[in-house]
Structure formats: C-alpha cells, structure tokens
Design a protein that fits this description.
homotetramer; 2 domains; DNA-binding
Chain lengths: 207, 207, 207, 207
Amino acid sequence: MGRREEKKRQKREAIESAGLELFLSQGYERASIEQIAASASIARGTFYLYYPTKLELFEALVDVWFEPLLKLLDEAEARLAISHTREESLAIYGEMTLGLATLGLNHESAVELAFRESRGGGEAGAAVRTRELRLQAASLRLTEVGAERGLITAPNPRLASLLILGAIERLFFEVLSDAEGLDDPLTLASGALAMLGNMLDLPTGIV
Amino acid sequence: MGRREEKKRQKREAIESAGLELFLSQGYERASIEQIAASASIARGTFYLYYPTKLELFEALVDVWFEPLLKLLDEAEARLAISHTREESLAIYGEMTLGLATLGLNHESAVELAFRESRGGGEAGAAVRTRELRLQAASLRLTEVGAERGLITAPNPRLASLLILGAIERLFFEVLSDAEGLDDPLTLASGALAMLGNMLDLPTGIV
Amino acid sequence: MGRREEKKRQKREAIESAGLELFLSQGYERASIEQIAASASIARGTFYLYYPTKLELFEALVDVWFEPLLKLLDEAEARLAISHTREESLAIYGEMTLGLATLGLNHESAVELAFRESRGGGEAGAAVRTRELRLQAASLRLTEVGAERGLITAPNPRLASLLILGAIERLFFEVLSDAEGLDDPLTLASGALAMLGNMLDLPTGIV
Amino acid sequence: MGRREEKKRQKREAIESAGLELFLSQGYERASIEQIAASASIARGTFYLYYPTKLELFEALVDVWFEPLLKLLDEAEARLAISHTREESLAIYGEMTLGLATLGLNHESAVELAFRESRGGGEAGAAVRTRELRLQAASLRLTEVGAERGLITAPNPRLASLLILGAIERLFFEVLSDAEGLDDPLTLASGALAMLGNMLDLPTGIV
DNA sequence: CATGAATGAGGTTTCATTCAT
DNA sequence: AATGAATGAAACCTCATTCAT
C-alpha cells in the first residue's frame, strides 16, 4: 500500500500550506525557506526534496488556480464563438462566471498571494506578471467576442476589460483583507455586478 | 549664505531620485543601500546622514505626494459639507479632481512605487497600507457626503469607492507599464471617466 | 548457486566503475554519492551496503593497482638481492618492467585518479600520499640494490628515483590528457626511455 | 598620510597569507572562507571586500609568481632569438635560470599551491591548468630556439621539455615536503642538473 | 560633513550519512 | 537486500548598519 507515498503527499501539502501562509504574511522575498521548513515541521534540507527552489514552490502555488482559470476562459471563448442564440451566449457567460467564482473561493489564499506579489520587483512578481499577460490576452479575446455578439456595448473592449479586472481585483482584495464596514461577500458581489453592468450598459437582469 | 544647505538639498534630492528609480526597478526589498548610494554618487555611510533607515527613505518618497493628497480630500470634504448649492458642490468636486490629477502627474513614479509595494509583505508594504487606510477613510467620507448631497446615486458608497479606486489603479498601472494596444493617456482617461460615470449614474457632462 | 553473489559482484563493479569515472571527471571532493549511485543505477542508500564511506570507495579504487604494484617491486627486490649474475639481474629488471607496464595499462584510469588526487588537500589526497610513501620506500630500496649490483651509475639513488618518477608521471599525465602535438604513446615511451637511460648512463640497448 | 591604506594593505596580506596556508594544508575545495577569515582575524563579510570570490583569491596567489615567470621565459626567448654567439646564448640561459630560481625561492608556498591543485577537478585545478598551457607553450618555444642554436641535442623538444618539467616539479615538490633522506637543496639541484644535462647530452660544465 | 572599511546575521543550497519501510 | 526520504551541518555570499578616520 502507498503508505510511503501517502506520507509524502501529506508532507508536500504541509510545505505548500506553510509556504502559502508565510508568503502571504511576510511576502515572498522575506519568507525564508528556514521558516517554511520549520512551519511544515521538516528539516531545511527536506524542503529541497519537494521543490528545487523557493520560486518553484511559489509558481506551483499560483498555478493551482491559474491554469484552471485560463482553461475556463478559453473554453468559454470557444463555446461563445460558435453559439447561435443570445440566450445560449448568456448561458455560457453565466456558467463561466460561476466557474470563476467557484475557483476563486476554493483558492482564496493562493489568489490573494498572486495579487500581492504581482507588482513586486523580484522573481515572484515576474512570475505572476508572465501569467497576467496570458490572462489579459484571454480576457481581451473574450470581451471582443462579447462585443461582436452584441452582448456588450463598450466602445473600447481593451479599456473595459482593464477597468473591470481592476475593480474586481480591488474588491476581491478588500474582502480578503477582512476590511470592516463591508457587507457580506454575496451582497457585495451582486452590488458590484449591478454597478459594473451599468458601466457596460448591460440591460439589468442579465447580469 | 545657504551655500552649505544648498548642497545638502541637492544631495538629498540625488538620494531620493536614486532611491525612487531603484525601488521601482528592483523592488524595495532587493534594492540595496549600496546601489542607491552609488547611483547618487555618495558613499554608503553618507546615506545615513540623510536618512536613518532604508524604510524612512521609502516613506519620505511616498509622503511627498500622499500628504498633499490627503489634504486635498479633507479640504474638499470640509468645503462640501458647508456648500449651499449644487453648482457650488460640483465646482468643489471639479477643483478637487483637478488637484488630484495634477498631483498624480507631478509624482508619477512615486505614486507607482506606492502601488507596486502596497501589497508586498515587508516593511514597505506595511508602510503603504497604513497610509492606504487613511486614504480609504477619507475617500469614504467624501463619497458619503456626495451621496448626502445627491451628487451620486450609488446605493453603497463604500463599494462604489472601492470599485473606482481599483479600476483607476489598474488603469494607471497599465498606462505606466507602457502596455501596448492602449490609446494615448488622455483618450483613455476620458473613456474611463465616461464608463465610470455610467457606473455611478452620473449625468454625462458632469464628469 | 552463486546467483546472489554474482549479482552483488556486478553491482559492486558498477559502483566502482561509476566512482572511478566521476572521481576523475569532477574530482573526489566534488563527486557526490548521489551522482555515483545514479550512475551505477542504484539507490543512494544501497551504496552504503557496499562501501561504508566515500573515502573507502576511493581507497578501494586505488588499491586495485597499488597493492599489486608494491608486490611487484618487493618481489623484484627480493629476487635481485639473491641474483648471481649480471644477466640474471637484468632479466629480473626486465620482468619487473613488463609487469609494471602491464599493470599500468590495465588500470589506466585508476592510476590517473591517484595521480590527480595525490596533491589534493582532502582525505583522498592524504590516502594517496600514505601509499606514495610506501612506494617511494620500495623504489628507493630497489634503486639501491641496483646500484650495489653495478646496474646503475647514478651517484645519488634517491635523487635519481625522484627524477625518474617525476618525469614518467608527467609524461603519463600528458598522454592521458590527450595533449596535442605529441607522438603516439609507443614512440614517446621509447624516446623517453632513451633519454632517461642517458641520464643514468645506461648502455643503450639495455633499456 | 595613507594610514587607512596601510591598514588595508596589511589586511589584504593577512588574507593572502591565511588563504595560502589554508589552501595548502586543506586543499582549495575544503578550505572555507570562514576559516580564512578567522585565520586572518577578520569577519566573514570582510573577506568579500578584498576578493569577490574564493577563486579570485586563489588566482591572485598563483599569479603573484606566474606572471613574472612567463615574463622571464618570454624575455629569454626574445633575447635568445637575436643572440649572436654561443657564449651570449649560454649567458642568457644562465640569467634566466637564476631568475627562475630566485622567483621560485621567493614564492615557495605559492608555487607549491599551484602544483598541488594543478590536477584537481574543481575550479582551482582548471585555473592552474589554464596557466599551465601558457607555460608549456612558452617552455616549448624556448626549447625549440635552444635546439636551433645547437645548444641542445634532444631530437624531440616537446618530449624533452615535458620530461624536464616533470622531473623538476617532482624534485621541487619533494624538497618542499621536507622529505627526509634528501641532501640540502643546493646539492640536490646541482646533482639534478648534472643528470638532466646528461639526458640532453649537454657537455658537462655548461650547466 | 563625508567616507568606506568592517561587521555578522541571515539567505539559499548541497551533501554525506542514517534509518524506517 | 534495497530503497529513498529525512536530516542538519556547513558552504558561499549579500546586506543594512556602525564607526574610526
């Protein structure tokens, strides 16, 4: 039986969990492998049996949600491109949105980590930005397809997608930070959607 | 004569300029005092005659624009609170917006620096976040006063201010990054304003 | 059947072969057990079932040729001491020389390894030097016996043996390094013998 | 006054002295910067103010004598090439030999260090071998010029220069190792010269 | 005022060896 | 007998900060 492998899996998870927590609380640069190892209850050398580098641990943590995210966008775009009716298109949007929300909720901390490091100057920031470029490209393609289909009236899709990404990012970030004075996440989300829908001239009810 | 002090001032500016550039290009954590001193053409030890700590240089760089920014918001709020007519209120908003824009344009790099570090985990990030809290409080007060006066129809001022901050931040960030595929800054700004106005249900022309 | 032992023997040989190659190409200190094990297609832990220590593997590799070498010298000396005629003595020298050459050719790499490490400061160098002392003692005894028998005219046997050892060592080393500009090994060897014979005033034809 | 620089110079010498001693006693690879620093009575970080790398300290130690050595050979070759009489040529050889001996005696330990590391597998060995190639080229050119002038009868200059280098190297090495049973260095040297002269068929008295 | 030499804690990574499976 | 996960000491190197000159 995979007793041995079970243990390895647990240890790998302990490392990832410790890394996530420490990268978040201290920043990628300041979090030391020494700390991560200690927090995962392993020896410093053991860390390197699981990840060859601090950076690779970071990337693994980000890719856990980033790869599925890209897949969601790409699939939605593909399906949208061959959708026949407006109803169908809206349904695709809806499913995608649901998928995104689920993904985000399941990986809250890891998403926050990427946000936090995205503008840092070191290797972690560079890794995130590499991924961000791919995300923006996908997001842009999606907005364009939406505009072609008449789902969105924004005159400048690039700009619209930027504003939306930024607004959502900030919102998300604040919710994660447990900022006081905000409603519960669901109320917030629907409020935000309404306002962003306004922005895109979307008929209410669709969003 | 202020010959002595003139020299000191110049040296201080050289340090700040070097610090700004290096913090931006490498990140606060990775930029070393050694580099900053070399870039400012002074000795390592001389740095400490001007700033007792790396962190204090960073804070000084941020406060150059942050303190005036807060002052602008506070003044606008105070004047708004005692404004008598709708025209007067809109004028106050207009002046404030102009002041903000001017401030931002005059300190582009320093603002970008704060953005970049704001989510980092180290001491620089903490310093920025401390200031951010004060900014959000001021921004919230302002939005509330605006709502009271019927200038804004957003049902949730806290949320509205978050979304706007985020959208603008992202836009700003992209423009700074020289992202390709975007129009020139002015066109972008008016486009963004229109869309954000939409969001707040502002009658066009006001923004 | 010795099926079990046959396998062990093969594995031991694989380890020695891998160790020899890696010690040579990277140096004793830099070659890691990890590399050796991988190159021998065994697990790291398995290595220690065959050798208790990295150093002991090294010593085993050297002793493969060093012990026979000493034995050859000792035997020649013993036989020389009781030889009765000049012809007999020369024959003993000849046999010994043949044996030495055969030994060297059969263990080229292992000999080179010892040369390479002999002057290193670490534990491997110490191990080689321990053996070198025994070799020099034997070589000196032999030269002295040769001088007693009138086979060699060198006034200072100790010095002569040093010079010869050094010259041959360097020659050997260069040939191994595939230095360009040298003739083929056989031509070189006979040329070197002639010159060294000159040095010892040996009548040509003997060497 | 250069009080400051005087101290720096002393410290640099302390580092070089400590490095030389430790490289010799433990080998380049095993000697740690920690040890070198401690032995030079400085902090670990201070080491890096003088040498950016362990390797660069090593190279500096070797070049102290290696660069002058090359210069000696090159000059002798140049002067030999334009010498007119046999007496003149022999004088040039004599001066060169004197220069070499002086150089070697003045840098005994540093020369020994290079010998020791020359066959090691790491970066130090590589550094020495790079220099060795230049040395062999110079030595070969010199032997060839000597043969052209009829000073040497060796049929194969390349081989002759190898044998001589090796013999001298070994002799030198043994003397440095304080090997027992050897005469004093001067006696040894003249004995070795006589034997090597034999080897090259040089008329006695010239060497 | 200004310098830059000096410090030493702390960072990442490698590796010989042990030991539970 | 064989495995390879785990250990932790030790290596090289960087850097904010102090201080004698």
